[in-house]
Design brief:
Length: about 240
């Protein structure tokens, strides 16, 4: 279910109603609902609040301040991803099946590749769109498409990709899972929309997409989805399983 969208002032009403219409919910000024899960539209953009999230801040995608982390760059992560992609003389056409906060997509884009990113959550898709619209650096999104869909539904129409990239949510039962507040928020968004995933089943569908390689991001201790791995790129806490 998509929770109501609250807006901060009458100035926001038109935009709030448009967002709410696209999301399939209602726009309200009734701030009695602030202690319940809700979307919030203000001058600062669209955000999501869940009372059970550890962070008391609303969750927002902000590519300008670096609060979504991609600018606070993870040099080591970048090195590992580059290694997993392999040497490419020409820009690659990458299908990112799990958009999330677009951190990995942005890394691919900053390396000069073209990216199509898929996100199953309607709420997160709209938060991302809003973040992209407010981004001061539009040039990075020139070779980028974001689609609201489940990757498995998209699989049969996925053509001409060099790389299929898959970074499913970690299981929330694991000790270390959702240690990042942002991932916890994504998990709350999925819970709110009653979206449940089976990453192994998704992998089995996605690996049928014709591409030169599939790169799967896993927690370092997680079991590989298949024994057919061609190589692995190991980091401290994560690894990339590469299937050719
Ligand atoms: C771990 S996060 C990905 C983080 C992302 N790689 C990043 O760098 O920000 C997983 C995301 O993929 C989405 N997702 C998981 N399975 C999906 C599927 N089958 N189709 C589309 N989106 C999916 C989830 O909703 C969630 O937003």
């Amino acid at each position: 279910m998509i929770p109501p969208l609250l807006y901060s002032s009458a100035n926001q009403q038109g935009l709030a109603e448009e967002f709410a219409g696209n999301l399939g919910t209602t726009a309200r000024t009734n701030h009695e609902l602030v202690s319940q899960p809700h979307l919030y539209l203000s001058e600062a953009g669209l955000s999501f609040f869940h009372p059970e999230a550890r962070s008391s801040n609303k969750f927002q995608i902000d590519f300008n301040s670096g609060s979504t982390g991609w600018r606070v760059k993870r040099a080591n992560h970048e090195k590992l991803i580059k290694k997993a992609l392999g040497k490419a003389d020409l820009p690659l056409n990458i299908l990112d099946c799990t958009a999330g906060m677009l951190q990995d997509s942005l890394l691919f884009l900053s390396l000069g590749h073209r990216v199509t990113a898929l996100e199953q959550s309607k709420i997160l898709f709209h938060l991302l769109q809003d973040g992209i619209n407010r981004s001061k650096v539009q040039s990075i999104f020139q070779k980028f498409d974001l689609i609201h869909t489940n990757a498995c539904s998209y699989a049969s129409q996925a053509k001409n990709f060099d790389v299929v990239y898959f970074d499913p949510m970690y299981s929330s039962t694991k000790k270390n899972a959702l240690s990042s507040g942002q991932l916890e928020y994504i998990s709350k968004i999925l819970e709110t929309e009653s979206i449940e995933n089976n990453p192994l089943k998704d992998f089995e569908v996605l690996q049928l997409i014709p591409a030169k390689k599939m790169v799967v991001k896993r927690s370092i201790k997680a079991k590989p989805f298949s024994s057919q791995i061609n190589y692995q790129v190991l980091g401290k806490t994560t690894r990339f399983d590469v299937y050719i």
